[in-house]
């Protein structure tokens, strides 16, 4: 295969199996200079330890490692949470919104270093290739994109391990522990290996941030989260920054087994994929934020926002972060969050997060109107006129049917016609 020459490439480098072998592969097949870029998104010190030395030893000329945890939370995670975006009702998008941030900084480094190409280690079957490449196209379409998984002879993780061994690249995976993982401060994902059988129940040893619910403490634990305009800023009465807040919330929720999800999702490329996710702190934040919105948003805004949440989740999952539509939806969401200020109390127990209290200075909830007891602010006789007007279209339709057909269009089904097998 003839390849167009490349002088300098910036590689999105995690230090995992795929990107570890890409460094020597790029040098061997393109004869180019390779610069690696690693984003610290909270994957843990064990993932970052020795990464610069490893990249340089593998043949990279320079290695960037940057702490982007705060910008990750404030510019990507929290806006998505405030939108209420959840992909296919369960996935809290932990990998999805990390990729546009990594790719954005990768483009900036490529421009800084005068590189003419960027590269990633995403497979040709997954979503991440789309997320990386759409970001590059949106921010600098002049950069060439190299995706080794779409070019090389390596077709499995076993092949990649053999290539690494032949080029003296140290790796962590072994044939007996092959999970494709992505970790950041928001979540940990697990794919591949035995999980490719959707009937297979994950081994408990696979989980990294949550204990099994049956092994969680026998006593519940309560946490209080304060929000200001939709953004969490206090945990249990203590003011803290985004990174500190989520780190502690991950610890508390993980201790009680909160935040596990096991799903078969529809990938953008049309393949169904089984993934197991651990999102302990994020699960609590989503529940608490939604509970506060039930107090502070009016009905019509809440219901319309549910439609926006579904579309927003698709945009994030599909890698369309840097698009006019996402920016426009962000403007809508930001407007809805102006009054989402208050405190939510959650109970963590045996894998569940239950909202047990919520309060806000902007609450639209009025006990004097909602009470079932005696009150003098609501005349229940008013409901009669409201119901007559609200049901007027249905009444007119029924009158027309009866006058024209002699019978109403809607009749109860005859359940006696159903027979048991």
Could you please describe the fold and organization of this structure?
The chain has 421 residues and is an alpha/beta fold. It is built from 14 helices and 14 strands. The chain folds into 3 domains: 8-69 and 94-177, Rossmann fold (3-Layer(aba) Sandwich); 187-297 and 340-365, Argininosuccinate synthetase, chain A, domain 2, CATH 3.90.1260.10; 373-405, no CATH class. The strands form 3 sheets. It has a 5-stranded parallel β-sheet with strand order 3-2-1-4-5, with helices on both faces. Helix 1 (17-30) crosses helix 7 and helix 8 (242-255) crosses helix 9 (280-296). The model has no long low-confidence stretch (mean pLDDT 92).
Q: Order of SSEs, N→C?
A: EHEHHEHHEHEHEEEEEHEEHHHEEHHH
CATH superfamily of the largest domain: HUPs
Name given to the CATH architecture of the largest domain: 3-Layer(aba) Sandwich
Number of helices: 14
List keywords for this structure.
421 residues; alpha/beta; Rossmann fold; Argininosuccinate synthetase, chain A, domain 2; 3 domains; five-stranded parallel sheet; five-stranded antiparallel sheet; 14 helices; elongated
């Amino acid at each position: 295969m003839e390849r167009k020459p490349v002088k300098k490439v910036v590689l999105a480098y995690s230090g995992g199996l795929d990107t570890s072998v890409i460094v020597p592969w790029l040098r061997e097949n393109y004869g180019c200079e390779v610069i690696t870029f690693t984003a610290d998104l909270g994957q843990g010190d064990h993932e970052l330890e020795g990464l610069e030395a490893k990249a340089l030893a593998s043949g990279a000329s320079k290695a960037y490692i940057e702490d982007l945890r705060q910008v990750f939370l404030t510019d990507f995670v929290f806006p998505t949470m405030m939108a209420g975006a959840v992909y296919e009702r369960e996935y809290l998008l932990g990998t999805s919104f990390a990729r546009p941030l990594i790719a954005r900084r990768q483009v900036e480094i490529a421009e800084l270093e005068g590189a003419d190409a960027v590269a990633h280690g995403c497979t040709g079957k997954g979503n991440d290739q789309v997320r990386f490449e759409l970001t590059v196209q949106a921010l600098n379409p002049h950069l060439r994109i190299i995706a080794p998984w779409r070019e090389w002879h390596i077709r499995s993780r076993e092949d990649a391990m053999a290539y690494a061994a032949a080029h003296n690249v140290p790796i962590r995976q072994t044939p007996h522990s092959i999970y494709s993982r992505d970790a950041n401060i928001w979540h940990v994902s697990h794919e591949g290996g035995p999980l490719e059988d959707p009937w297979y129940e994950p081994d408990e040893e696979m989980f990294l941030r949550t204990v099994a619910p049956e092994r969680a403490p026998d006593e519940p634990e309560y946490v209080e989260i304060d929000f200001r305009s939709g953004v969490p800023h206090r945990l249990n009465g203590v003011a803290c920054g985004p990174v500190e807040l989520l780190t502690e919330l991950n610890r508390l929720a993980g201790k009680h087994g909160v935040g596990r999800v096991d799903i078969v999702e529809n990938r953008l490329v049309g393949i169904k994929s089984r993934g197991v996710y651990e999102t302990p702190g994020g699960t609590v934040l989503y529940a608490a934020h939604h509970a506060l919105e039930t107090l502070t948003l009016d009905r019509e805004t809440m219901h319309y926002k549910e439609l926006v949440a579904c579309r927003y989740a698709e945009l994030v999952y599909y890698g369309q972060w840097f698009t006019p539509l996402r920016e426009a939806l962000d403007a809508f969401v930001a407007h809805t969050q102006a009054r989402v200020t208050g405190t939510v109390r959650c109970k963590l127990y045996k894998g569940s997060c239950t909202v047990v209290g919520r309060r806000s200075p902007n609450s639209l909830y009025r006990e004097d109107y909602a009470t079932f007891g005696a009150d003098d602010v609501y005349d229940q006789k008013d409901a009669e006129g409201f119901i007559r007007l609200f049901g007027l279209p249905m009444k007119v339709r029924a009158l027309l049917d009866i006058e024209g057909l002699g019978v109403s269009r809607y009749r109860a089904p005859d359940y006696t016609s159903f027979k048991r097998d």
